[in-house]
Amino acid sequence: MSSTSPPPSYSPRRPPPPYEEQNSRNAKKECSMSEHNYKVSPPPFVPLSGPSTIDVDQLQVVLTTANTQPTTVVIVQEAKPAPTFASYETFCPTCQKPIHTLPKYVNGALTWIVFILVLILFFPLAFAPFCLESCKDAHHYCARCNTLIGIKKRIF
Predict the structure, then answer these.
(1) Do residues 108 and 155 lie in contact, with contact meaning Cβ atoms separated by under 8 Å?
(2) 28, 76, 82, 104: which one has the fewest Cβ atoms less than 10 Å from its Cβ?
(3) Strand ranges (E), 72-155
(4) What b/e sequence results for 13-42 when a residue is b if at least 16 CB atoms lie within 10 Å of its CB, and e otherwise?
(5) How many of the other CB atoms lie within 10 Å of CB of 129?
(6) Is 54 in contact with 61 (CB distance < 8 Å)?
(7) 11-28 pLDDT, tens per residue?
């Protein structure tokens, strides 16, 4: 296979030539700074909360006030200790009605302790505590509004 055209050039591209206007402006700034022997600090930080304009040459900042939104207050109600691991009847403070709780089992301290012990003794069964509800803590939720009512822990 013969080719009549030469292979493409692989030389790196050259940077664009410097811009004369920019170079002359930078030279003037450097000259004026060296004569007065002072440093120019960067413009101050302005948060992006509202429209603002910064005149860098004079280092003046003009801000417009932003509308403030009303604050939201969140009231956190801690869950009480539950009397049992099974579902029980109680009063929901959110629904204001008597309900039967819905227990959901989550990994707790006992789950991790049994995991570590079984991992040391017989590692093929080390993940069994994560499958057994008898090793997990019970979080009781309201069946109507899904509010956390109580927590029953196996240990600690």
Answers:
(1) yes
(2) 76
(3) 80-81, 89-92, 97-106, 137-142, 148-152
(4) eeeeeeeeeeeeeeeeeeeeeeeeeeeeee
(5) 22
(6) yes
(7) 777 776 666 666 677 666
Cα separation values, 111 from 103, 129, 136, Å: 17, 5, 6
For 76-100, what is each residue's pLDDT tens digit? 677 888 899 999 999 998 889 999 9
Q: Do the strands 80-81 and 148-152 form a parallel or antiparallel pair, or are they unpaired?
A: parallel
Query: What pLDDT is stored for residue 107 in this prediction?
Result: 96
Residue 103 burial by Cβ neighbours in a 10 Å radius (0-12, 13-18, 19+):
buried
* pLDDT at residue number 115: 95
How long is the chain?
A: 156
- Please check whether residue 102 is in contact with residue 90, taking contact to mean a CB–CB distance below 8 angstroms: no
Token digits for 126? Answer: 């080390």
